[in-house]
Design a protein that fits this description.
Largest sheet: 6 strands, mixed
CATH architecture of the largest domain: 2-Layer Sandwich
Structural class: alpha/beta
Helix content: 40-55%
Number of strands: 6
Number of domains: 2
CATH topology of the largest domain: Nucleotidyltransferase, domain 5
Shape: elongated
CATH class of the largest domain: Alpha Beta
Mean pLDDT: 86
CATH superfamily of the largest domain: Ribonuclease H-like superfamily/Ribonuclease H
Radius of gyration: 21 Å
Number of helices: 10
Strand order of the largest sheet: 3-2-1-4-5-6
Length: about 250
Amino acid sequence: MQNNSYTFIDIETPNRSNDKICSIGIIHLSNGEKDFEKYYLVNPEASFDEVNMKIHHIKSKDVIDKQSFNQIWPMIEKYFVSAVIVAHNATFDISVISKTLQFYNIPIPEFHYFCTCEKAKRHLPNMKHNLNILCDKFGINLANHHNAMEDTQACLELFQVLTGKYGLLPEEINTYVFSETIKSNEVMVQKAMNELHGIVYGIGMDNVIHEKEYEAVRKWMGEHNQYKAQEHFKECYELIDQILEDQVIPMC
């Protein structure tokens, strides 16, 4: 970890599982100078919940042709492993990143982080500590809250305000070590279902199973039939098998 190297981040998630990423904003400062700033829409290879979409306004159609996080990570990894990560509710963002890396079987590094929310709680105990409320208090522009890039910029400015007023102590920089584990079989089943979701999304665009889609589903079934004994996977597998046989998509 380099001295005076800070990476400001914010992420948005597609669903309540909070183990995938659909957008991420990143700003890196080295010795006080901004040398990297990037906003990514990310294909989470997962379904979207209505609640999440109402918050950040990102939908499946917005990310279906975007890179997945395992494709983006090699381009941004250095900003996470060689700097202090700064975020509002930092442990949430870092835990989601860790779970996403685990899903793709990517080694999860040890993260050093600073949380602007915890800093605000320490020095401003008699108020709410939501990012937008703190921005209002300190005159920080946050016109489009829950846009990952705008939240990242707001977090940077809040960090500068809080550390300028109250200082930055060494003990306020913490270490995050991911300790949750998912059984490898569960990971593979989840990947299989995410692959299927992508195929079904294409079919659902016109409710017609085209030849390439038919072949893609058949290939998926052949590659993942070892999981069909598992309860929920079994139900899904048998339904798809019936659809392919009848060439009819049942209305639910």
